[in-house]
């Protein structure tokens, strides 16, 4: 596996691949890789001749008081895992490589408001602007044919599809299903913050969402009821609920009666750890 | 000269050029071409194997009450001039091609505030955000090796250099000196709005800026005095002044005593027509 920190190192590798006519797939990550990330790398392998994984803990997508400082950084383990997953190039840019003009006063990308200001965006103001800014920059630096994102961050996936549509990137977005632990908990770097009791509570997030998704699939007209019941169950499990919502899968708008493709999404706190998950509304 | 309206038509041409190993230069315009634009095309010819000129009157960079509706659209004459200038491809996107998700709720680019909120930006709120959004989209669609901009829109040139730096575009920005009419008036599509009397007044814009530039070159420490004198002379000529300012050439910050490279910039109204111009501060 090759490695690049600067734009020049990155471009040297990319040039050689381009000359050889090889296609590329990008897997943007913040590191602390788990099986969920490795599923993205595996999907990338199927989509292109060469796989580039980026690791960058992007300050622009963390809010005041969020966990930027304590976000786990485990580069050595990450490298080993990526070698094993047959990743071709690891791009670990410095802050200077990503924000050469500084972050304070710079050109930024603003995500489409209807998507960016609801659910996660309503709870984490500016978060998706930080995401699309770093992803746009990664697209410009790497110019991949494909970029791979996980359905775990479902709203982010839609925000990025809109980035590609609106700004005209020639990048295909591939989505990969959420990878879950034995008890169904979606894998997340933040799970490591949980103690045993908090983890037990966290397991209910998937259970409740799966149940809600089944109910919606059975009787899609009673959405507010489904949402209220799900919220009550999450709270009973000891979780604090930021939101639990059934939305139209393609744009997260509030569904009308005849929308066939729905998704239930939630964000909860288990102790001091914020967790998100989502499920397609079909019988499980 | 080939022509493309849609992304697919554009990409078909670009693919064939790329396969042939040909480099490309983009000249983004809003049409109604004059000698100033043709100088950009000529510069583009020197910079790359193939020249693409885009013509798109971008609604996102016009404010409320500005001249979007009456902005001159002269496609047939433009085409003829571009043929003569040996432009290889004319890209005339539709609104649907440029803003497929609509303009109201879409991913946008926001220009770096320190550059975008002063001078032109202070007088035309949101203008540079509209500019960088459309230019980012053009860069993504065309992926040129070089893009050519005129020094007439000096602040825009700097805003676009920041776009390239901050978002990491692999595009070289080439700047071309302002083309002027016989009396020194900078060529602009908006000059056609002027009647004879207004045009006579407008001629003073260049005269006063050139004089101010010379004064600064001779005695760079008396900048506020130079600005005040220039403003008075413009007003005497019957022009209404939005601003006249001597700034650091590289970032338009207020100069300190030892900044060697200065630029004087102004925006004035002659009747109902807004005109801008600028000059490097050296003896003329």
Q: Can you give a write-up of this model?
A:
The structure is a homodimer of 284-residue chains. Chain A has 284 residues and is an alpha/beta fold. In chain A, 40% of the residues lie in helices and 20% in strands. The first copy, chain A, folds into two domains: 2-176, Rossmann fold (3-Layer(aba) Sandwich); 189-279, Pantoate-beta-alanine ligase, C-terminal domain (Pantoate--beta-alanine Ligase, Chain: A,domain 2). Chain A has a six-stranded parallel sheet with strand order 1-4-3-2-6-7, sandwiched between helices. In chain A, helix 9 (196-218) packs antiparallel against helix 10 (223-236). The longest helix of chain A has 23 residues, at 196-218. Chain A is globular. The first copy, chain A, starts with a strand and ends with a strand. The mean pLDDT of chain A is 96. The A-B interface holds A 7, 11, 99-101, 105-114, 132-133, 136-137, 140-141, 143, 162-163, 165-170 and B 7, 11, 99-101, 105-114, 132-133, 136-137, 140-141, 143, 162-163, 165-170.
Strand line-up in the sheet with most strands of chain A: 1-4-3-2-6-7
> What is the CATH superfamily label of the largest domain in chain A?
HUPs
Largest interface: A-B, 30 and 30 residues
Termini distance of chain A? 39 Å
**Overall tally of domains of chain A:** 2
Entry keywords:
homodimer; 284 residues; alpha/beta; Rossmann fold; Pantoate--beta-alanine Ligase, Chain: A,domain 2; six-stranded parallel beta sheet; three-stranded antiparallel beta sheet; 40% helix
């Amino acid at each position: 596996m090759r490695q690049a920190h600067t734009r020049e190192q990155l471009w040297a590798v990319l040039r050689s691949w381009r000359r050889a006519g090889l296609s590329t797939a990008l897997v943007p990550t913040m590191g602390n890789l788990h099986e969920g990330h490795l599923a993205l790398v595996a999907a990338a392998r199927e989509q292109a001749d060469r796989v580039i994984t980026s690791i960058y803990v992007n300050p622009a997508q963390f809010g005041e008081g969020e966990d930027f400082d304590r976000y786990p950084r485990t580069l050595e383990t990450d490298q080993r895992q990526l070698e094993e997953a047959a990743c071709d190039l690891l791009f670990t840019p410095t802050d200077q490589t990503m924000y050469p003009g500084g972050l304070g006063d710079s050109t930024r990308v603003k995500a489409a408001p209807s998507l960016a200001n609801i659910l996660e965006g309503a709870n984490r103001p500016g978060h998706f602007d930080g995401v699309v800014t770093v992803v746009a920059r990664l697209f410009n630096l790497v110019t991949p044919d494909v970029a791979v994102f996980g359905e775990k961050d479902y709203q982010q996936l839609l925000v990025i599809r809109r980035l590609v549509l609106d700004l005209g990137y020639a990048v295909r977005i591939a989505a990969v299903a959420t990878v879950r632990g034995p008890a169904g908990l979606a894998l997340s770097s933040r799970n490591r913050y949980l103690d045993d009791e908090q983890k037990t509570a966290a397991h209910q997030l998937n259970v409740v969402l799966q149940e809600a998704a089944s109910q919606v699939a059975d009787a899609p007209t009673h959405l507010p009821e489904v949402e209220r019941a799900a919220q009550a169950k999450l709270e009973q499990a000891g979780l604090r609920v930021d939101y639990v919502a059934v939305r139209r899968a393609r744009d997260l708008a509030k569904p009308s009666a005849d929308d066939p493709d729905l998704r239930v999404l939630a964000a909860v706190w288990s102790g001091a750890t914020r967790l998100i998950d989502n499920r397609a509304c079909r019988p499980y």
